[in-house]
Amino acid sequence: MPLPDSINATQSMLTTTGYVCSRELATVVFLSLKLGRPLFLEGEAGVGKTEIAKALAAALGRRLIRLQCYEGLDASSAVYEWNFAAQMVAIRAAESGDREGLKAELFSDEYLIRRPLLEAMQPQPGGAPILLIDELDRTDEPFEAFLLEALSDYQVTIPELGTITAPEPPITILTSNRTREVHDALKRRCLYHWVDYPDFDREMEILQSRAPEATEALSREIVAFVQRLRTEDLFKKPGVAETIDWAKCLLALDAIALSPQLIADTLGAILKYQDDIQKLAGSEATRILEEARKGLEG
Ligand SMILES: Nc1ncnc2c1ncn2[C@@H]1O[C@H](COP(=O)(O)OP(=O)(O)OP(=O)(O)O)[C@@H](O)[C@H]1O
Ligand SMILES: [Mg+2]
């Protein structure tokens, strides 16, 4: 599928995958595609950052290549490694016989393990892939500096093979939960968007898209409750992912409406810290439910 030619087209393209996209997000996605700039998405957990990359890949029919960041991630795990074990076997096999040309063979494509960044620079059927660099805040500064370079020219040099340049830059999406600030230099390369919790109407749309089995009445109660819950002083507020999970739990229990008992029984689907769960025990959940219902009436 060709790249969308407007903000509206971007928004409806994402909608076809079930991703509910605000106008602001559609704008920044459109611009990032149009200008060929990486898109840097920050936001709380479970608000749909990773999902955007998946939705884009599905909608555009491109391959999704994901670099999952973690503490200690280094260039070799991100770009390429030599298949040392296979090289050893080849050396053993050659020990008795012909050793001519062995070295050249050992450092050829056959023994190269492509990690996500190198993979994203290879030609792909259907066009440039989507490169998702997920949870960047989990890596450290040296890796960021390395990434900055890789994102500036989309090429990597492998001493034994030479320089490999992407025929077409990948469509790059970086995400962060902001457990630490990402360096300005890297942000400057990218278009930036803060993915916020959706408002009531958008969260209703998301729920209808992801848990269509839920009745409108139940969905409204779920969304109102979760939205109200997010205003409480919690260690970890529920994301959209939790709203969807909770709806599925309630459906599995054949619930048609919320009740304090049902909430108490299923709180583990929306709150993942014991302190938060304890806070909601007893009358607190009842109070929030009443307030949520009042909000729905008003
Ligand atoms: N706007 C949306 N439209 C449709 N589904 C959504 C939307 N936002 C979130 N979701 C759903 O919520 C779930 C969580 O989304 P996702 O994994 O993208 O969150 P995230 O922001 O990457 O969270 P984390 O920071 O924890 O990785 C997904 O299963 C996705 O289907
Ligand atoms: Mg994610």
Description:
- The chain has 298 residues and is of the alpha/beta class.
- It has three domains: 7-74 and 115-195, 3-Layer(aba) Sandwich (Rossmann fold), CATH 3.40.50; 80-113, no CATH class; 200-293.
- It contains 15 helices and nine strands.
- The chain has a five-stranded parallel sheet. Strands 3-4 form a two-stranded antiparallel ribbon.
- Strand 6 (155-158) and strand 7 (162-165) form a beta hairpin.
- Helix 1 packs across helix 2.
- It starts with 6 loop residues before the first helix and ends with a helix.
Give the tags.
alpha/beta, 298 residues, five-stranded parallel beta sheet, 9 strands, two-stranded antiparallel ribbon, 49% helix, binds adenosine-5'-triphosphate, 15 helices, binds magnesium ion, Rossmann fold
